[in-house]
From TrEMBL:
Residues 86-113 form a coiled coil. Gene3D superfamilies: Zn(2)-C6 fungal-type DNA-binding domain. It comes from the Eukaryota. CDD domains: fungal_TF_MHR, GAL4. It is found in: Nucleus. Residues 1-39 are annotated as: Disordered. GO terms for molecular function: DNA binding; DNA-binding transcription factor activity, RNA polymerase II-specific; zinc ion binding. GO terms for cellular component: nucleus. The keyword NAD does not apply. This is Zn(2)-C6 fungal-type domain-containing protein. Residues 22-39 have a biased composition (Low complexity). Keywords: Coiled coil, Metal-binding, Nucleus, Transcription, Transcription regulation. Residues 45-77 form the Zn(2)-C6 fungal-type domain. It comes from Fistulina hepatica ATCC 64428.
Length: 585
């Protein structure tokens, strides 16, 4: 899990803790003034006695009057320059507050350019196959997260979202938006985004800002950089200030879409703390809006009534809500694994909405017309997987399988000689069977290339890869056993084969999740197998052919990662770590 606070001993006081002395011991330890009189000369009284306007003997560290009143603190005296300790501390606090305000103002004015320094990124292998290693603190404690502090600095000067910027977004971002967490109906959004500013159906500024930010981010240039930086600042400020209204259901869904876009934006660029923050907000909104429930009703929670969203106006809006929840749920499952953090969803039995579809424009009846068993419970625990009817459903189920593998593996921390508990063993067998049956249902990716559009092919590449990644994760529970290690290696090779079944270079962009989790994880499995072969007692003649094959597949995977790492800082960091390992073999 991400370390949230620094734990260095330098942040804690090193001097022993002092306790107030009794009045007897205090009197014995005090020193009286050297003057012959009991009272202090004029102007030498301590600050507390001055405030009370009583005589003071100027004793140190405490005078007789303060000793009588049993004050805990030592007396404070004015020095030769007319200053006293309390005044100096107050002045120091004032200077610190002024400096803090200055830094916040500078932060507001500076550009939000995204950097990806190696110290701000996760371990080389965030796809952790049972390796319970803590993640380092990604940001020092003095770094201000704009999405957390922006509201305290007053409203920013917003960048106007002109029709030209919106048109730029429609052309440059919407065709590839599915790679970065987009779930809204593209046609409806495109139609409403170009409506006049005061039109009630026009999307809110928070969503338009996030979408236009992505558009400019994907087509950088000196002329657009200033607008890009202003939009970044505007978007995080809008998300921090605005509150979605339950009276406007589409406003809530659009707000979640904006949060998910910013989550992807920050994760892709290595800003993990900010990305995790926006993902948590998206999850909270999805849960509080009850997007996971099939029934549209009010629910009682801890004595208060939490209003659900009003019924959708048509099938398109209903479809947006379904895709909204599953997009948030899927991202939460996979990024929790990449960040080695807990998920935001804990109760599988509460989720009963249907699986998402690719197109809701042809729907003529309510998608919630019949209630059934909870969706995830039915899929994960009962029966056999059913045929998949949409790309969106395939991707979401792959997310679910990936997250479930991690859940099973993380529930057991083996010790020396420990046996797997029966409950975990049963879950392992059930989930392993589900993974094999689900994978058998998938049409080979090479054949799918002629059946679906390129915009659907890249999500399928992610889904197919996640299923193999789920197999690797699950069998990491027994990765010291030859049989399970062979299954892991076979799944890693299948991930490499997927990149060769189709020309992955046809995609301008890919979802960063595939490189950060699946490809990186497969590479680590191949590295591990190569090192194991080199250390085995088998004859080199028997292993040299296998090792050469593994190295060729590994090099092929690293080459693909290098192609997409050019435009993805997060993947570039992962690649640099893998290349360091490659140099050792």
């Amino acid at each position: 899990m991400l370390a949230a606070y620094p734990t260095s001993s330098s942040h804690f006081p090193t001097s022993p803790v002092s306790f107030p002395m009794s009045s007897t011991s205090r009197a014995a330890s005090r020193s009286s003034p050297t003057s012959s009189g009991a009272a202090a000369r004029k102007g030498r009284a301590c600050i507390p006695c001055r405030e009370r306007k009583i005589k003071c003997d100027a004793g140190k560290p405490f005078c007789d009057q303060c000793l009588r009143y049993n004050r805990v603190e030592d007396c404070d005296y004015v020095d030769a320059q007319g200053h006293h300790k309390t005044q100096e501390l107050e002045e120091e606090v004032s200077r610190a507050e002024a400096r803090l305000r200055q830094l916040q103002d500078e932060r507001q004015q500076r550009t939000g350019a995204i950097s990806c320094q190696s110290s701000r990124l996760p371990p080389a292998n965030p796809f952790q196959y049972g390796l319970d290693q803590p993640s380092p603190t990604l940001f020092p404690s003095n770094v201000l997260i704009p999405s957390l502090v922006s509201s305290s600095t007053g409203p920013p000067s917003s960048e106007p979202i002109t029709p030209q910027i919106i048109q730029h977004m429609v052309v440059n971002f919407l065709p590839v938006s599915c790679e970065f967490g987009w779930f809204l109906d593209v046609t409806r959004f495109q139609e409403t985004a170009l409506l006049p500013m005061d039109h009630p159906d026009r999307p809110g500024n928070v969503l338009l800002s996030a979408a236009c930010l992505w558009s400019l981010h994907l087509s950088p240039g000196p002329q657009t950089q200033v607008i890009h930086d202003r939009l970044l600042s505007d978007t995080v400020n809008l998300l921090a200030r605005e509150v979605p209204l339950v009276e406007r259901p589409y406003n809530i869904v659009h707000f979640i879409q904006a949060e998910l876009l910013m989550c992807s934006f920050f994760f892709r660029n290595g800003k993990l703390t900010e990305g995790k923050y926006h993902l948590s907000k998206a999850c909270s909104l999805a849960l509080s809006s009850r997007l996971y429930k099939r029934e549209i009703r009010q629910s009682e929670f801890m004595g208060t009534y939490v209003p659900s969203l009003a019924p959708p106006i048509d099938a398109i809006e209903q479809g947006d809500r379904i895709r909204c929840f599953w997009a948030v749920y899927g991202y939460d499952q996979v990024w929790a694994i990449a960040l080695n953090a807990p998920t935001n969803f804990s109760n599988e039995s509460d989720i009963d909405i249907p699986w998402p579809k690719d197109n809701y424009r042809s729907s003529v009846q309510s998608l919630f017309s019949s209630a059934g068993a909870p969706t995830l419970i039915q899929f994960l625990y009962y029966g056999h997987p059913e045929p998949i009817f949409s790309v969106a459903e395939c991707v979401v189920k792959a997310f679910v399988l990936f997250g479930k593998s991690k859940d099973i593996m993380s529930r057991w921390k083996p010790g020396v000689g420990d046996e797997v508990p029966v409950a975990i063993s049963d879950d392992f067998v059930r989930h392993d069977l589900l993974l094999r049956e689900f994978k058998a249902l998938l049409t080979p990716l090479g054949r799918m290339a002629s059946r679906v559009s390129p915009s659907d092919l890249s999500p399928l590449l992610l889904a197919y890869s996640l299923v193999d990644g789920a197999i690797i994760l699950l069998h990491g529970l027994f990765d010291t056993t030859p049989t399970h290690r062979e299954i892991q290696t076979a799944a890693a090779l299948d991930i490499v084969n997927l990149t060769q079944e189709i020309d992955v270079r046809q995609f301008t962009y890919l979802n960063p999740l595939i490189g950060v989790t699946v490809w990186s994880g497969a590479a680590h499995v191949l590295f591990g197998e190569i090192f194991r072969l080199r250390g085995s007692s088998s004859s080199p003649v028997e292993t040299v052919g296998v090792e050469m094959m593994l190295r060729q597949r590994l090099d092929s995977l690293l080459e693909i990662m290098a192609y997409f790492a050019r435009i993805c800082p997060m993947m570039q960091f992962q690649l640099s770590k893998l290349e360091d390992m490659r140099s050792c073999i």
